[in-house]
TrEMBL record:
Source organism superkingdom: Eukaryota
Name the UniProt record assigns to this protein: Fungal-type protein kinase domain-containing protein
Matches recorded under PANTHER family: FUNK1 11, FUNK1 6
Record-linked InterPro entries: Pkinase_fungal
Pfam family, one: Pkinase_fungal
Lineage: Eukaryota, Fungi, Dikarya, Basidiomycota, Agaricomycotina
Transmembrane segments: none
Domain (Fungal-type protein kinase): residue spans on this chain: 2-296
Length: 310
């Protein structure tokens, strides 16, 4: 499940099942949480068994977890993806060129951020994904999962600009607000940036963004089981050759698993219960194409100091 969801950007969630002897369990995996059903005997509960398979067999692609706004295409003998982004009442299409960043994690839950270098095209079907718009201008496409109802990157950027506009108005009435900048010799620069609005050039410009699918909410009847995949008890091996290397290795692995279980149990107290909030897919287009921090030859950070900017 982890490999499928992490390697295929089209997946929003997925279902699965496990069978142990005659006991069957149904699984649901998403970016917000993972759920497993109470096991049932598939040889006795025939109706439940048939219901599960018919539900999966007749489900639509969207119902089994495929995002209908991401399309896989073959471009120049390479697998690429065409993302749909709603903007000002119309749908725009962006074909990926190469991956700029993808979070490397074995976890399923979380943001799972992907950043692509992309280009706008006419569509995804037929040869439309080959027809580039705006002269093939490259952009950065970011695709991630946010907690439902949380602020987006565009919300945060707009809030920063609104705050800077508020500072601009305060400076008009009280120029002493920028006295702290005299120490650095940058007062004139800050005044010019505020007057002209050119401070926006210090931020990557968001061309458009959109909110998409929301994962299923956690069932109220479900119960968290943080120790689900950790052995319940330390078990001794029953091998007759207790001195063998394989026996010693097994004993060591069981000891490690037992210690991890105790550590998890001590760490996950009732007061630290995890909140499994539904996740919403969020997608945005940057006009500029940056690069990941690990690829930068050097890092330069610019800080604003002074209580007047707080």
């Amino acid at each position: 499940a982890s490999q499928i969801l992490n390697n295929d950007p089209r997946r929003t969630w997925m279902y699965g099942f496990t069978v142990e002897n005659t006991m069957m369990s149904i699984w649901y995996f998403s970016r917000s949480h993972t759920v497993v059903s109470t096991p049932f005997d598939l040889t006795k509960e025939i109706k439940s068994f048939i219901h599960v398979f018919l539900s999966l067999l007749y489900a639509t692609r969207e119902e089994i977890g495929y995002d209908p706004t991401i399309h896989q295409v073959l471009h120049d003998d390479e697998t690429q993806y065409v993302y749909e982004v709603a903007s000002e009442g119309e749908t725009r299409y962006f074909r990926t060129i190469k991956s700029l960043f993808t979070s490397q994690t074995l976890r399923i839950t979380g943001r799972k951020t992907r950043v692509w270098k992309a280009v706008e095209v006419e569509g995804y079907d037929g040869n439309k994904h080959r027809k580039e718009k705006e002269g093939g201008r490259e952009v950065a496409l970011k695709d991630c999962w946010l907690d439902e109802g949380s602020r987006t990157e565009k919300d945060n950027l707009d809030a920063i600009f609104e705050s800077l506009e508020a500072v601009k108005e305060k400076v008009k009435h009280d120029s002493k607000i920028l006295d702290w900048a005299d120490l650095s010799g940058n007062r004139q620069l800050f005044e010019d940036l505020l007057d002209t609005g050119n401070y926006k050039g210090y931020f990557m410009e968001i061309e458009c963004d959109t909110k998409l699918a929301i994962t299923k909410s956690q069932l109220q009847s479900s119960e968290p089981v943080p120790e689900f995949l950790v052995p319940l008890e330390r078990e001794e091996t029953s091998s007759g050759n207790e001195g063998s290397q394989s026996t010693q290795t097994t004993q060591l692995l069981l000891e490690i698993a037992h210690q991890r279980r105790n550590a998890v149990r001590d760490r996950l107290k009732p007061s630290a219960a995890c909140e499994y909030r539904a996740k919403q897919r969020y997608r945005l287009i940057y006009k500029e194409v940056g690069r990941p921090l690990y690829a930068a030859p050097n890092l330069f950070f610019f800080f604003f100091f002074g209580g007047a900017w707080a």
